Amino acid sequence: MKKILLLILFLAGIAAVELSAQAGPERVQALRVAFITKSLELTPEEAQVFWPIYNNYQDKRDSCRKALNEKKRLLKEQKESLSDADYLRIANEELKIRQREVQIAQEQQTALLKVLSPKKVALLYVAEEEFKKELIRILTEDNNSGKGGKK
Amino acid sequence: MRVLLVIVIILGSHLVYANKDSSKVVKPGIPKHFIRPAFSWSLYATGERPAIGNRPALNNKLGEYRYLQSVWSFYTPLYTKAKFSADSSSLNTFHLLATFNSVIDRPEFLGLSEQHRLYKTGIGLRAIAGLGKNLVLFADATPMIFGDAYDRANTRVLRWGATFAANFLVNPGLSFRFGVTRSFLFGNKNFLPMIGMRIGKLDGLVYFNIQLPRTVSLHIQPTEKFAFTIYSRTQGGLYNFSNKDSLYLGNDDVIQFGQTGIANGIRFDFRPGPNFNFFASGGFAVRNRIWFYSYSYNRANDLRPLAPFYEAKPQGTIFVHVGLSWRFGKSKNAQGNYLMYEIYDMNNSNDPGDNNTMPGNGDIRRSAKAKEMHKVKLEDVGDLIQETDLY
Fold this sequence. Notes:
heterodimer
């Protein structure tokens, strides 16, 4: 009986931790799939070839974004202890990451043009922007109406 | 003891992740694998009823019968290769995984003074290839040590299970599966054909899956956190069994015990976050069979090795089945990639070590609708938004 109680407590603990865990990136990905598929009016055949390519470059873009965030964190936390040489190195690294982002976008466009029409590739940029704006709009509305989550 | 071990592993991994030096820039990389390592555990137990078989003396000796099974399994990716075809129209992937499983089976015959704890432990290799837009190939081989804790020295034996299967994805809502399996699920050593079909998207609201000879199931996933399944699955195994109770009257130290049945039930899945999913299930165990075999008797009488000297058909009874899966680490993004979903499904529906516990597709996220955007919180999108997006 004690063992069962311990197990139940353990599982309840896990569930509680999981409920507060960051499911956000996963959720945003799922919403992005829904939004872009609808915006670009992707057929099932197009979607089947589009998403593996898009995800591949999305992983690379995420990596760049995380690297930029790490630099921001370093600059914020170590502001007092960094030398001018450190600042210059960090600034140069930031520039390199941004150049890499452009390169990734170019590679993605080349790959997508092999499987989608130029119109849909061009509209992808619009859909990505619209997706972000829609998220911002909803978050702003929630914030104003007091419905938002942790702010 | 096992619960404690899992607690130590979970706490240990959290400590490793938490113990970062904040003064260093951690260079984020791209995850190497599409499949995250996963632990699964499940416990299955039936009610008790008489084991009425073809030998009255043995029926009296065995008495009432009930069955308990605890299964631990683990898989982890070892190597992943992903390459686009020359025209970029498809992503070919190859996944090599290591698998581990540990099973304790307790066929409890209440007429015996000592109960037998039958065990099975195996480490195996699994390869999955996603080719082109439609095809997934799956191969799994697991050598396993079987025995009876009642008399470990005399009952230990090595056996292996294997599965080879091909899955053809016609479209996201329809797939076919064919293959062969070397399995002990039917209480004997069998080479069986596999044939299957799924109707409905794996990330959709409803899908129906028939994968013979293992499962038939109807899945309903109303939200990202909850799912229900109505299912019928094969449940069984073949084990070495100590003859210390003299169930067989010859001089054998070890005999073989086989049991099988079909568990028809309803299952409730709860997935509170991205890493864990729990399930609880109940129903009726029907078409139950148990057998005892003696190699020495069958050899002496020129019978096939696994011809039973005792066969019983215990009545149908209720069962409960509970379990959890824990996935950890990061994986490459596979959202919207239905061929990758097929890979996840094949990996999850073929349990390591010839078990059939249905640990669930915790790594396939339920598809979202644009109207669900209000569920997103500000901290979820912090990385996505730049100041230029605001004007």
